[in-house]
Amino acid sequence: MPASGTFDCHNAPALPFDAAILGAIVVKSVTLHPQKGNPPPRLAETPSGLINSIGIPSPGIDVFIQQILPVYTALGSPVIVSVAGYSANEYAELVAALDGLKSVEAIELNLSCPNIRYHRMPAQDKDLLQECVAMARGATAKPLWAKLSPDVPSVGEMAQAAEVAGADACTVINTTSAMMVNIHTLRPMIGATRGGLSGPALLPIALAAVWDATHHANIPVIGVGGISTVEDVVAVFAAGASAVQIGTASFYDPMAMPRLIGELDRYLKDKGIASIEELKAKIRQSQTPSAEEV
Ligand SMILES: Cc1cc2nc3c(=O)[nH]c(=O)nc-3n(C[C@H](O)[C@H](O)[C@H](O)COP(=O)(O)O)c2cc1C
């Protein structure tokens, strides 16, 4: 799947590949009311990743449903709508607005954007996270995914809290808070000073977070963060993920997702593994301690 915010084809000209090959499409987070997003510059490159502070520009949920959602549903893959609220009530309202729509397969609760002015970030506050998930749960029977932040002492505890509050899956992880300085102006490179770091630098952080989440919670974990090669995909599965999302890699290689789908197929064939399910079974087997180790 594309990671939320990295596959905005309603603004782009033509897609360079057939999006029906994707497992699902996760759309850019949408807020309840329209908002403009953060002041520019919104992007800064680092030696091993990208800092963004887009700040979720959004047309609001009503315009999204009428004008943007149909563009994604026409692409032929299940559509996952990501929502970002400023309170538990807003998450419930957003989810309620999507609940009756057949074209929405699941809802990802973005509880972890480092670039919007929450009073508190839900993914960093267990009580608030549970309130947001529980209120959203009360507003829909659709699958609910809770997107978590790496910027906490224990992603595992947050995943467990999300599960208890009614999440069906966790998406692990959002970007991590970061900053770059323009050495000529001696000012922060990002208009909002800080942003969220994504790309290759995030992979080891994502691996630890996915491992932590899968060892604390009993719901599927969707791994995201710094994935750009087939080895990265397999590593994220080995850390416990049930599925993966690709973000920044698509910016420097727009064919990253179809390439990785093809490379994963070849990887499985080369290893004589029939399916991703069999790969996951092998991973579980290799991580089960042997009699001597116990
Ligand atoms: C430009 C940009 C915009 C993003 N917008 C969103 C967003 O709207 N909602 C969200 O949940 N995550 C958003 N993210 C975070 C990604 O979905 C993903 O969690 C993160 O970038 C790590 O994956 P990656 O290293 O493969 O990019 C955004 C990331 C980038 C780079």
Structural commentary:
The protein is 35% helix and 17% strand. The protein is α/β, with parallel strands linked by helices and 294 residues long. The protein has a single domain, classed as TIM Barrel, CATH 3.20.20. Helix 2 (88-99) runs parallel beside helix 3. It starts with 24 loop residues before the first strand and ends in a 7-residue tail after the last helix. Bound molecules: flavin mononucleotide. Residues 3-6, 28-29, 50, 52, 54, 56, 82, 110, 113, 147, 174-175, 198-199, 202, 224-227, 246-249 line the site of flavin mononucleotide.
Rounded mean pLDDT is 96
Q: In which range does the helix fraction lie?
A: 25-40%
Poorly predicted tracts of residues: none
Structural class, please? alpha/beta
Coarse morphology: globular
Strand order of the largest sheet: 1-4-5-6-7-12-13
CATH architecture term: Alpha-Beta Barrel
CATH fold name: TIM Barrel
Helix segment tally: 9
Cofactor: FMN
Subcellular location: Cytoplasm
Function: Catalyzes the conversion of dihydroorotate to orotate with NAD(+) as electron acceptor.
Binding site for substrate: 28, 52-56, 110, 174-175
Structure at a glance:
This protein is of the alpha/beta class. It has 9 helices and 13 strands.
What is the strand and helix layout of this fold?
Elements: E1 25-26, E2 43-46, E3 49-52, H1 61-73, E4 79-83, H2 88-99, E5 104-110, H3 126-139, E6 144-148, H4 155-165, E7 169-172, E8 176-178, E9 181-182, E10 187-188, E11 195-198, H5 203-216, E12 221-224, H6 230-238, E13 243-245, H7 249-252, H8 256-270, H9 276-287
Parallel strand pairs: 1-4, 4-5, 5-6, 6-7, 7-12, 12-13
Antiparallel strand pairs: 2-3, 3-11, 8-11, 9-10
Helix pairs in contact: 2-3, 3-4, 4-5
Flavin mononucleotide (FMN) is lined by residues 3-6, 28-29, 50, 52, 54, 56, 82, 110, 113, 147, 174-175, 198-199, 202, 224-227, 246-249.
